[in-house]
Amino acid sequence: MQACGLDFGTSNTAAALPDGTVLSLQPHTSEPRLFRSVMFFPDDEREIYTGADAINRYMEDNTGRFIQSVKSFLHSNSFRATQVKGRTFTIEDLVAILLRRVREAAGAHMGGLPEAVILGRPAVFTPDKDADALAQKRLHRAAELAGFQHIEFLIEPIAAALAYEAQLTRDELVLVADFGAGTTDLTLMRLGPSRRGVKDRRPDVVGSTGVRIGGDRFDAEIMRHKLLPRFGAGSTYRVRGLSDKRLPMPQHVMAKLLSWHEMSFIREKSTQDLLDTMLETSDKKLEIEALHDLVMDNLGYRLFRAIEAAKVRLSRDEVATVDFEEARINLHEPITRAEFEAFSKPLLDELEQCTVGLLSRHPEAANIDAVFLTGGSSQIPAVRQLYVNRFGEERVRTADAFTSVAEGLGRASAAFG
């Protein structure tokens, strides 16, 4: 029976073989092992584009529906389906579209489509137990719709731990921190040669926890503190028929701008009417023009790519610039690492509290041998420094930030044997 591991992520998806080899899913892209978890439904054709093809097609002509971060909604009972060009897609349908394409790409390396899969899942989709169970149920159904016949789940930080374990020459007690786009998961686990290859690793897990902080939240802080004023935050406008009454920019509009997968939800007639009124009467006309084009031209994804690029540069440089020129938007906003760390402090504090909480619940944590950091936000200097401050530089280790979970899931899939 053909089996693989599959890391379905908020931003990227990756797949790996039972020997841990992470597969090239889109060989003609700059990151062939990462399949972007996005899809695009053009207005003028029936084809559904996914991954890098979806991004390229969307960039050519954004007249259509661009859908991303579907994983973020798996736990939400209020998001059951969406309409695209008169067709109804449940959330399971949308996830299945992505999983099916990844399964087909993996099958090209395996001599046939995999029938069995170990799927990663966060330690905690959400603190609400019913909503957490709903998220896993939906992900399981999506995998069935994608054609998988045998489906098992593994917590993502445990999968990352298995990838780290492959290089160990002695047994260790390890704190694994997996920083995804939507969540951060922490697991305290016994790893090493004496445990490698054991099918049931649950007894080796000392404890685990998670928090809904990921790369998207750090991007949102850049938007909140540096860019919202460039899109009308703090402006006022006059209501038609009430010549003397001025109203502040509605907070719900600004709130939606903090997340690129939420921004599409304000592309509706009521928002368009509001923006038209603001264009006529706002005290910050240029900023409202930029807001209008950002929302109505569906430029949110492109803007957040520019924000993410600046965030990545801040991991190696002291200063970066958010550069974005589209329609009537002309942004060249500098940001220093010190600024970024200052307005990210609430997130850093929450990460630290989550970590301390896990450690305090388990006395064994006093004997941690190593801390293994993986995922995109593990590259943020302030995030790494949290763990260096507590455990010392010599105990903090990193690996491939984006494929460790997939590698571990692949190794776990060997159990299907």
UniProtKB/TrEMBL annotation:
Pfam families: HSP70 (PF00012). This is Hsp70 family protein. InterPro entries: ATPase_NBD, Heat_shock_70_CS, Hsp_70_fam, YegD-like. Transmembrane segments: none annotated. PROSITE patterns: HSP70_3 (PS01036). Belongs to the heat shock protein 70 family. It comes from the Bacteria. Gene3D superfamilies: 3.30.420.40, Actin, Chain A, domain 4. CDD domains: ASKHA_NBD_HSP70_YegD-like. GO terms for molecular function: ATP binding; ATP-dependent protein folding chaperone. Coiled coil: none annotated. It comes from Myxococcus llanfairpwllgwyngyllgogerychwyrndrobwllllantysiliogogogochensis. Keywords: ATP-binding, Nucleotide-binding.
